[in-house]
Amino acid sequence: MTERTVGVGLASADISLDLGDLHPSGHGAFRVGCRFEGDVVTAADPRPGLLHRGAEKLLEVRDYRQALMLANRHDWLSAVTSEVTLALAAEELLGLQVPDRATWLRTLLCEINRVSAALMHLAGAAALPPHGNTDRASPGMLAREAWLTCLESLTGGRVHTMVTRIGGVAYDVPLGWGAQVHAALALTRSALPQVVEGVIQTIRPHIAVLDHATARRWSVCGPVARASGINQDLRRDDPALAYPRLADVIRVVTADSGDALSRYLVLAEQVMADLEIITACLDGLPEGPIDIRLPKVVRAPEGAAYAWLESAVGINGVYLVSTGATTPWRVRLRTASYANVQAMSAALPGTQLTDMPAAIGSFLFVAGDLDH
Fold first, then answer.
1. Pair type for strands 40-47 and 164-165
2. In sequence order, which residues have a C-beta less than 8 Å from that of residue 222 and are 6 or more positions away?
3. Torsion-angle region of residue 169: left (phi > 0), alpha (psi -120 to 50) or beta?
4. By CB neighbour count within 10 A (0-12 exposed, 13-18 middle, 19+ buried), where does 358 fall?
5. pLDDT digit string (tens) for 217-248?
6. Predicted TM-score (pTM) above 0.85
7. What are 31's strand-pairing partners?
8. Tens-place pLDDT, residues 13-47
9. Helix (H, G, I), strand (E, B), or coil: what is residue 120?
10. Which of 11, 184, 260, 351 could form a disulfide with 362 if both were Cys (CB 3.0 to 4.6 A apart)?
11. Rounded to a whole number, what is the largest CA-CA distance in the chain?
């Protein structure tokens, strides 16, 4: 038996895994301590924490408006969802009622962000070496580009959108934006079958199996949980924003095998289902104001609030504690990446070294989302 550290991205380690140019964790740093019998993993110990981002402490020294500009950086693929989650917690503390149009716009932008993030993970899976497609013009990346263009047209930002404000959103939809969204919808529908085919050709079945009971024990969420038969989605089970009024178009995709391939296939099928929510949001967008006027200094009353939303990879939660100052006294993040990655210790044993890139990537993490 040998003990080795397996590294992803910039992490220095005994074994460096290449997750391809497109995988969202490739430029981060993450390590897994493994024991091997030959080239088969017998034990795994995920070791996050190499980026030293300190997001929670950084948020605690910003006022509530400034914090929104920073909240979108721990999961850089789900920036809008992270912004909106923090805003919902702050608005609960402040007792604010957000205008209806702003609520629908937030929901629409969160769904667009969900699809663009999922496409990045799927494109990364289809590009896994040594057999994957390394061309950046892959169907998944072309569809993702269309969604990023939609975000850029409305917010001016492609990744860190910074569109959310306490009490609403910063910008309304520009002229012709609906046509852009419909074009992105059509492109995604046509691209997904090719993306799924690429994933199936790249990832073998029965790798890194996480059964239903183990998935529950590790509190995984999102597609990682649903691929293990856990039928859970906050948009249906504890709806916020405009999701209560979209219940008839929300479809939750599950599977039972719990392996790496299933996690990606559930993610892909969920994207197809979420396109219907985007269409419904666009059709149901009401008229009216997009924000409410606030005083120059926002001071939340003493108390605590918790908000959570379903991102592309699982539950994104924010717990705020206020002592009545202009900055939160405590910020605690519940990130999907951190919960999902811990389950690797249960799923990776039995995995061959050659299958490790697919196995690790299937837990759908972003490296910055691991370091609170």
1. unpaired
2. 310, 311, 312, 313, 314, 315, 336, 340, 364
3. beta
4. buried
5. 999 999 999 999 999 999 999 999 999 999 99
6. yes
7. 7, 47
8. 788 777 777 676 666 678 889 999 999 999 999 98
9. helix
10. 260
11. 66
